[in-house]
Specification:
This protein is mainly α. It has helices at 2-23, 30-41, 57-78, 89-95, 97-113, 118-128, 149-164, 166-175, 186-220, 228-245, 250-270, 282-306, 314-335, 343-351, 357-367, 373-411.
Length: 418
């Protein structure tokens, strides 16, 4: 199977390279095309690639892990807005309280429709609670100097909540007897919440800023950095490995490292350092973005090919629809007041709760911890169908909705605060 996999992925990448100019003209996201190819080459089509999600979880966890890490580092570098509680209020609310509300809503919807024990419902809510930074490129900031409030909020939220989902997942696994949480959950609160979150942010920031200063010193000595790809993957591997070593959340640490590099560049520019190259140059962002797209192709092909192996029961489909149409809007309305974001923007944030690669990772992570049998199959079907519907609905609507939003913004410069 792995031979066919390499041939198919290679063929798709070459085809996309030659047709990229045509794809950009389409009013839909490239992820829909990858998904369609996955369906066509899977059991529902030519049967060239037969994937069972349950059997593929070990290597699927690794593949999605790498994809999310590359994306989070890239997202962190794109965020050039200085940190302040006012500027970051919306993404911080969505990635904290919003995650809790989303998890609870999804668990409640699952309780109404799915035959799962309540710890598994909590796990399902945690797995589907993060929005996806890999498949959300259509609604993210376009370049490092993009200051649009809507795009910034969606981008920063996607970077933060892929790490913030871990406490919910670990609590659910603990309640299922697959992770140690301590009496009355004390260990979970102290280690899995307080320590793992705080140490990840601190470690990532310190590493990112230290590397940024080192690159600055290298440039000052007259030796500009040229091998950006080494720095990108080196930073990701170093920060992620160090985070796991101290039992911190690696996703959050890598995101913080990318943001620290961006902050370092901003502070150096404030000091009037006139250098265009360096660790956080446009070439580094471009290289990381290309790596992110490569991972996106591979994973969405897997999702498409695996759709034939999930249980397409009406209750599961209704569950997936309600996750998109109810859970996300409720979480946004409950956590983002109008004083922080205008109503037109808030409606778009409520709609663009894109599910994707991050949820596949958390699903694989949980199942690889020992969940099996009927519960694992039900969880897999619910997550895969929710991702499938999200890719279709958001992939079709992203381009026209964002174009309308930008036109409205140009016509009325104060529209964001209406």
């Amino acid at each position: 199977m792995h031979i066919a996999w390499f041939v198919l992925v290679g063929s798709v990448l070459i085809a996309m390279a030659f047709s990229n100019h045509l794809v950009k003209r389409l009013p839909l996201s490239p992820a829909i095309l990858y998904l369609g190819v996955g369906v066509l080459i899977g059991p529902l089509g030519a049967s060239m690639l037969d994937l069972s999600p349950e059997d593929s979880m070990p290597w699927l966890e690794v593949l999605t892990e790498v994809a999310v890490l590359i994306t989070l580092f890239t997202v962190g570098m794109r965020l050039r807005v200085p940190f302040s509680l006012s500027a970051w209020a919306v993404p911080l609310r969505l990635a904290t309280v919003g995650m809790v509300v989303t998890t609870a809503c999804i668990a409640l919807i699952g309780w109404l429709l799915l035959d799962l024990p309540w710890p598994a419902l909590l796990l399902l809510g945690a797995v589907l609670s993060p929005t996806d930074p890999v498949l959300a490129s259509e609604v993210q900031i376009r370049h490092p100097e993009d200051r649009d409030g809507l795009r910034f909020s969606l981008t920063a939220e996607g970077g933060l909540n892929d790490g913030m989902a871990f406490p919910g997942v670990m609590l659910a696994l603990g309640l299922m007897g697959l992770h140690e949480i301590g009496d009355w959950g004390w260990r979970w609160l102290a280690v899995d919440v307080v320590w793992a979150l705080a140490s990840a942010l601190l470690l990532g920031w310190l590493c990112g800023y230290a590397v940024g200063r080192a690159v600055h010193a290298l440039r000052q000595s007259g030796h500009p950095l040229e091998a950006e790809e080494f720095l990108a993957f080196g930073m990701i591997a170093l920060v992620y490995g160090a985070a796991l070593l101290i039992h911190a959340y690696g996703f959050l640490a890598v995101f913080a490292a990318g943001a620290a590099l961006a902050h370092c560049e901003r502070s150096l520019r404030a000091d009037k350092v006139a250098h265009q190259d360096g660790a956080h140059s446009s070439r580094l962002i471009h290289f990381s973005a290309q790596s992110e797209h490569l991972a996106e192709v591979a994973i969405v092909l897997v999702i498409g090919a695996s759709l034939a192996s999930v249980d397409w029961e009406w209750t599961t489909v209704v569950f997936a629809l309600l996750v998109m149409a109810v859970a996300r809007p409720v979480a946004v309305l409950a956590t983002v007041p109008l004083r922080l974001m205008a109503q037109p923007q808030r409606r778009l944030v409520a709609w663009f709760g894109i599910r994707g690669v991050g949820s596949v990772y958390y699903l694989a992570y949980a199942i690889n911890h020992g969940i099996d049998g009927t519960v694992a199959r039900t969880l897999t079907s619910a997550v895969m169908i929710a991702i499938f519907i999200s890719i279709l609905a958001h992939g079709i609507s992203a381009t026209p909705l964002m174009e309308r939003y930008m036109k409205r913004k140009k016509r009325s410069p104060g529209a964001e605060r209406d």
